[in-house]
Write a structure and sequence with these properties.
This protein is an alpha/beta fold and about 400 residues long. It has 14 helices and 16 strands.
Length: about 400
């Protein structure tokens, strides 16, 4: 059903007025002029469901209520365009994979848009989409949590411990993520990491082992995890869009990656610095330490969301020459778990951490900010954390 047909003439409450809520209001104002719209930034208890036909919830709002009037921008968009959508989710790698796929499709002559968690809200692109447009949609767990639709092509990259402050258990977190594929239909396609437990899927399913890939790629991006991301892109581009393999490989090789994802920011006093501020879990910090050439120093810590850091601590204990600089709440926790280890430092904030890194890292080696923690207790987001890191490095 078209979004305009579903909403026109209805009484609508927009619950939450961040970027997506504002985009929803703008869309309704320009496309559904007969609607009556209100905005709420309060709690569930403030909503009178009898007064509205639909309550369009923003993805960041936690709500366990199941109500047929409770919908999202993602639901509306998928109801109209699901047959054109390549939905990509996972704990890590979804932004890189979505951006790489979009880059490859456009380079190879496919009309495409990139929407969702990575960029502009999907309704902002409504008027640019025709029947031939490929829609690459990065989908967060919050966008998927209450969804009753799945995209025609669904990608489930991986699943690591994250967002437990929001979902409480890994079971609940997995349930939200799996909405990307559990409503698929016959003829749909799912590409899924074979380590992720999944329900029975109606469509075609390709299970991928990230440690035993069918292909290898010449890439600017380093690390086996990016080879895995490229494998997903390659399979979709060649098998579903029937693009020439040599053209796809060339486009993958040209892709330069995204900011704050193992991003090289420069050399200062002979030390190479990398910004991996996107890192919010143990596995991504380990990937950074393994992927970046000559890493001698890693900066860890941020908001403590209750995740288990044992896998990261075990890794660090094996890397005796690695300088580990811990900061903020989770950094203090990691530091306590590394009690007695040499080359381990505790400080209060990012500025102090960079100062120690400059002192302890030898010329010809590298330092990386890969916090394995969320940024929200001291920074607006991971982007701001990365930019401030760059500022301190270059001072």
């Amino acid at each position: 059903m078209k979004i305009t047909e579903k909403l026109n003439g209805k009484r609508i409450l927009i619950w939450g007025f961040g970027r997506e809520g504002k985009a929803t209001k703008e869309f309704i104002a320009s496309h559904c002029k007969d609607c009556k719209v209100e905005v709420l930034e309060g709690s569930l208890e403030d909503i009178d469901f009898h007064a509205f036909d639909y309550v369009i919830k923003s993805p960041g709002i936690k709500c366990e209520l199941e109500n047929e009037k409770l919908i999202s921008q993602t639901d509306l968009f998928m109801e109209e365009f699901r047959g054109q959508i390549i939905g990509i989710t996972g704990t890590k790698g979804k932004s890189t994979t979505a951006s790489m796929l979009y880059h490859v499709l456009v380079k190879c002559g496919i009309r495409a848009v990139l929407v969702g968690n990575i960029g502009m809200p999907c309704l902002n692109y409504y008027d640019e989409i025709d029947k031939k447009t490929a829609i690459v949609f990065e989908m967060s767990c919050h966008q998927l949590a209450h969804s009753k639709e799945s995209p025609h092509i669904a990608v489930m990259l991986n699943l690591y411990e994250d967002h437990l402050d929001y979902y409480g258990t890994m079971e609940n977190y997995l349930k939200a993520k799996l909405h990307i594929l559990c409503y698929q239909k016959e003829g749909d396609l799912c590409l899924i990491n074979k380590e992720v437990p999944a329900p029975m899927i109606k469509g075609r399913c390709i299970k991928i082992n990230p440690f035993h890939l069918q292909h290898s790629f010449d890439m600017k991006l380093k690390g086996s995890h990016n080879q895995y991301n490229a494998e997903i892109v390659f399979l979709i581009a060649t098998k579903e869009y029937h693009l020439k393999e040599e053209d796809v490989r060339k486009a993958i090789a040209e892709f330069g990656g995204l900011s704050h994802r193992q991003e090289f920011i420069g050399i200062r006093d002979g030390i190479s610095y990398y910004d991996d501020s996107i890192s919010t879990i143990c596995e991504s910090a380990i990937q950074a330490a393994e992927s970046i050439p000559k890493v001698q120093t890693i900066l860890l810590g941020g908001m403590d969301r209750g995740i288990n850091y044992q896998i990261l601590v075990d890794y660090i204990k094996k890397k005796k020459d690695l300088n580990v600089i811990c900061m903020y709440a989770s950094g203090k926790h990691i530091f306590s778990m590394l009690s007695g280890r040499e080359n381990t430092f505790l400080c209060d904030n990012l500025e102090q951490a960079v100062r120690i890194a400059k002192r302890e890292t030898k010329q010809g080696h590298a330092c990386v900010l890969s916090p394995a923690a969320a940024s929200y207790d001291h920074f607006k987001n991971f982007e701001e954390r990365g930019e401030i890191f760059r500022k301190f490095v270059m001072e």
